[in-house]
Amino acid sequence: MNGSVDAPILRVRRWLKPVSDALLIAAAFALAYLARYHWQWLRQLEPTYFVPLRVYIPSIAALTAILMLMLWVSGAYGDARGRGLWDEGVIVLRSVVLGIATMIVAVFLSTPSFYSRLIFGYTGIFALVLLGVARIVERNVMNRLHRRGIGVQRLLIAGVGEIGQSVMRSCIARPELGRVVVGFVDDDPERAVTDIGRFKALGTLSDLPALIVAHRVDEVVVALPWQAHRRILEVVRACERENVRVRIVPDLFQLSLSQMVVENLDGIPLIGVTEPHLAAWERIVKRAIDLLGAAVGLLVLLPLMAALALAVRIDSPGPAIFRQERVGRGGRTFTCLKFRTMVRDAEAQLDALRDRNEADGPLFKIKDDPRRTRVGKFLRRTSLDELPQLWNVLRGEMSLTGPRPAIPAEVAQYEPWHLRRLEVSPGISGMWQVSGRSDVGFDEMVLLDIYYIENWSPLLDLRIILKTIPVALFGKGAY
User: Fold this and answer.
1) Do both 301 and 332 map to the same domain?
2) Which residues span the domain enclosing 26?
3) Angle at 386 between CA 380 and CA 387, to 5 degrees
4) How far is CA 412 from CA 178, 231, 254, 423, in A?
5) Are residues 87 and 93 in contact, defined by beta-carbon separation less than 8 angstroms?
6) Residue-level pLDDT, tens digit, the chain, 479 residues
């Protein structure tokens, strides 16, 4: 959707957030009053010290004003794009603590001593809870709207080198940021006409003014190398003439795509650059998680796996387990285990079906593959066919999360930049699997894999595992 169409949503969000915060702060004080004078938490209250709520009305107004000021100064009502929920929580915590402290000092310097001290502590706790929950709800609502294309910013990328591709990776991996790439331009003749997954090659930098109008672009992201500084200035001027916001990714950002190592030579700082990869401690942590998860999974799911194996054998002749050579970390091959979902001679029928391939790139996928068995259709839709890969995880050939394991024939067709997905062990689940699976194109899958490699953390793995459960249950993009 065009950003101008969604502008009312953004305007409503800008004024609704401070208004809701003000109401929630007042509600927090009201709850604190109930906790102190009616529920009497922590300490019993003598009847002679009872204070009606109306006495606190000036304090409610003052505290609301103070906390709103603290939140505004902390940037709570500025542009929150790219700001994580943790950052929002820190802003709220800092603002509430400083605001409550300021209010306590002001009250006890200017009002009688019958004011309860505990009521302000309760107010701080309730304010933290209510404001925190409000931000979680807001984030979830905006994420859902952004995933539907509502309230998003339409980006056009100028330059599709490594820096430009990193912007694409972030937009795919984090749709909640509210940015949608409509396409890219590049002066390289080959790049200017070659799409990258869903991202369309729209031409050269000279076509930029017409493309801004034709595609209703809200923002142009310039991701050109520093050698093209003159072209960068031309792009900036073109965007200014079209009254479109322009953002420049500095060429030094290339360093953040790698790991910087700072050394000292007699007081002279030396910056070294290494390609991004999991550090030794990160590999140890990831391997420990894999071992624990795979061992527990096999023990808990063993009865289910036995029942599925029996169902596969009864449904069609052939072994219950399908073994296939796959390519793992560093290009090493291994035998990948899956429950058999196709007829026994499925591999022999492959050549006759190649003209029905519905996937792009080196992948081969048919939505209604005639080789699948009845049980196989169920296993594919629910991803239960991949449970035997827990054994591959125990053996160290795979991980619980990571890139999809590729077959050697696919790897033989990789372009050089595709090979980066082989830097880590393949996974039973991954960003591709929780982002639509077969509905996601090959180039987009690789972009997601590279994003995973560059941004790996135990928390990211946990997010993927948690997202895998509903994806498997509803079978989105599975065939």
Assistant:
1) yes
2) 3-147
3) 125
4) 36, 37, 28, 16
5) no
6) 344 445 566 667 778 889 999 999 999 999 999 988 888 776 666 666 677 888 888 889 999 999 999 999 888 887 666 566 778 888 899 999 999 888 888 777 765 555 667 788 899 999 999 999 999 898 888 878 877 777 788 899 999 888 888 889 888 888 777 888 999 999 888 887 788 888 899 999 999 999 999 999 989 999 888 778 888 889 999 998 988 989 988 765 555 555 555 565 556 665 555 555 666 778 888 999 999 999 999 999 999 999 999 999 999 999 999 999 999 998 999 999 999 999 988 888 887 888 887 777 788 778 788 899 999 999 988 889 999 999 999 999 999 999 999 999 999 999 888 998 998 999 999 988 887 666 678 888 899 998 898 888 888 898 898 888 887 776 665 55
Q: Which two tokens stand for residue 316?
A: 């069609």
- Verify that 178 and 287 share a domain, yes or no: no
For residue 73 the two structure tokens come to 């100064």
Question: Does the predicted TM-score (pTM) go above 0.85?
Answer: no
Number of domains in the chain: 3
3-state secondary structure 10-26: HHHHHHHHHHHHHHHHH
* 269 domain residue, yes or no: no
Query: Are 37 and 97 in a shared domain?
Result: yes
Q: What's the N-to-C CA distance of the chain in angstroms?
A: 30
Q: State whether 57 and 196 are in the same domain.
A: no
Same domain, residue pair 99 and 241: no
| In contact, 339 and 311? CB cutoff 8 Å | no
Asked whether residue 33 falls in the same domain as residue 168, the answer is no
Asked if 236 and 330 sit in the same domain, the reply is no
CA distances from 346 to 318, 352, 359 (A): 11, 11, 18
Token pair for residue 395?
Answer: 């053996």
Instruction: Give per-residue burial for 280-311: e unless 16+ CB within 10 Å, then b.
Output: eeeeebbeebbeebbeebbeeeeeebeebbeb
In a domain, 322, yes or no: yes
**Facing residues of 271 across strands?**
262
Q: How far apart are CA 388 and CA 398, in angstroms?
A: 11
Which residue, of 240, 255, 270, is where some domain finishes?
255
Domain containing residue 191: CATH number: 3.40.50.720
Tokens read off for 108: 């006890």
Sign of CA dihedral 77, 79, 81, 87: negative
Domain annotation covers residue 53: yes
Is 479 part of a structural domain of the chain? no
**Residues 251 and 337 both lie in one domain:** no
What is the rounded distance in angstroms from the CA atom of residue 69 to the CA atom of residue 452?
39
- The residue out of 130, 147, 164 marking a domain boundary is 147
